[in-house]
Amino acid sequence: MLSRVAEEVANHPGVVWTNVISLRREDAERLGYDSAAQWQALLRSRVELLCENYKIDSRNLKWYAAFHNESHHPHVHLVVYSANPSEGYLTKKGIETMRSVYAHDIFRQEFMSIYERKTEYREQLKEQANTSLLFLLQQMQTGICHNEKIAEQMQLLSRRLKNTGGKKVYGYLKSDVKAIVNSIVDELAKEERVAVCYQAWLQCRDEILHYYKDTVPKPPPLSEQKELKSIKNMVIREALQLGRGEHPTADEMVYMPTPSGTSPAPSDVQRRGHHPQQEAAHHQHTQTHWAVSLYRGRRALGDRGGVWGADRAGGASGNGAGTGRKPKFPAG
Hints:
By secondary structure, this protein is α+β, with helices and mostly antiparallel strands. It has helices at residues 2-10, 25-31, 36-45, 47-54, 92-106, 108-142, 148-162, 175-188, 192-210, 230-244, 250-254, 266-271, 276-284, and strands at 15-22, 61-68, 75-82, 289-296, 307-310.
């Protein structure tokens, strides 16, 4: 079969994508990916992924894979192309999607633990943002607020909302009113306790990305985090209450708890056994490595390991990991 596949690929007139999915030896043995059977099951379960991200009709999809049980990095070579030479297109987003999906499948148990902590930190962040904003609003009533920018923006937002019709939620507001909300949220993120919560949440995000990325992109401002959109609507609710004069007195504020009784300062995170920076650094050494390339015309497949695949599939998708090189993004 190997010689037939090699000849077929070498003579294909269209684009052929070659991918490598590679694990460190210790991870492969621990997770069962030191045998061809486990890789075969993974790739066959994600054929639709190939079709979606390579933009290949499932009736035309062709893919083959070969497992190499190398001593320090067991890996599979994955070849993908279309029976229709003019079909197929791979974008940078498609590469990122496939990396993420395969990494989530391979490191499923590790990801479950990280997502549990990420959810915990998200809820703490939402609570702390609300608590900090209420404290600032109470300060405003005394005439002395340590964050004058938030005080001014909350007053402005309150006035704008009084003259706004329809639903008073973020998605329905005009762009200029949304900009005020965003400004408040980003300024609120600078408050010490809120900043600690936000950093803990971001560390979990980075841990996940380190499994299949060499570098992690700079995080966007808090106002641009889609998972934390509820903080924007919390700001809007408090601005509406401010306009109605319904905010708590100083005596009432004394009894307002912070998340879990206190803010999750770095020392608290360590005591719970979740030190985000240390864990992120650890996972840099256990990540899946990816590489992707394409070529036209002749190129022979390697002659080690078994080969399996499908001429046609009911779906498609796959992306490879390599030997520690930064991913190369082929033109579509």
